[in-house]
Amino acid sequence: xxxxxxxxxxxxxxFFDVDGTLVDFADTPAAVRVSETLRELLQELxxxxxxxxxxxxxxxxxxxxxxxxxxxxxxxxQHGAERRNAAGHATRHEPTQGLNLVRQRLAEAIVxxxxxxxxxxxxxxxxxxxRIPSLATxxxxxxxxxxxxxxxxxxxxxxxxxxxxxxAGKDKGRALLDFMSEPPFAGRMPVFVGDDASxxxxxxxxxxxxxxxxxxxxxxxxARWRLDNxxxxxxxxxxxxx
Length: 242
What we know:
Elements: E1 12-16, H1 36-48, E2 53-56, H2 61-67, E3 75-77, E4 82-84, E5 90-92, H3 99-109, E6 117-120, E7 125-128, H4 136-146, E8 154-159, E9 162-167, H5 172-180, E10 189-194, H6 200-208, E11 212-216, E12 225-227, H7 230-238
Parallel strand pairs: 1-2, 1-10, 2-3, 10-11, 11-12
Antiparallel strand pairs: 3-4, 4-5, 6-7, 7-9, 8-9
C-alpha cells in the first residue's frame, strides 16, 4: 500500500466519509465543526467533477446537509439506509416495527450512565462511548442483547468509540454501486475516502471497479492508498488536477 494516492482529477467520481475523514472527531457528533476552507474545497470539487461528489456517512442526510449547507450534495446517510441521488431523488429504508421498543429499552439501559450518548438517527441507533471508553464492554453486551428483538432486520456496525444498530443489507459499498449506475457518476473512476470499519464496504466496492480506495489513518484495511489524517485529506484535495 502506498501512502500517496494520485492527485484528484475532475473526471473522477468521489465518495467521502465525514467524521475522521473530512473532519476530526469531537466528543459528540453535534460538536463537530466544518471549516469554511473545507466547504469551499468540496464545492470546488463538486463543480469541477460535474456533480460527481457524494457524502457517505453514518450520519443522517439531514445532518449531512447541516454540515455542508452551501451545496446539496448527493448523499448516502445512515450507512446507506437512506440515499439521495444527484437528481435530488431520495430513497429510504423502512424501519422494522420493533425499533421503537428497542429504542425505549436502550434509553432505559443507559439512564444511569450519563457518559454514554444515544444517537437516534431515525432508522438506526448509535451508542457512543467516546467520553467514557471504560464502558465499551457494557455497550457491546447491551446492544448484542437487543439485536434479536429486531428479527434479523438489523445488524451491528462497529465504529470508532461507537456501536450502532443499523438495517441489515445496507452499507456504503452497496450505496456506492447504486451511485455508480447513475449520472453523473456512471463511467467515471470511483474514489472512496474513509477511515472507519463501515468504510471498508466502500473500499471493497471501489476495488472491484478498479478505482482508488483511500484509508485515512492507521489500521488494517483493504484500501489501496493511505492518507495520514484529516489534514492530509485537505492537502490532497488542494492538489486537484484541472
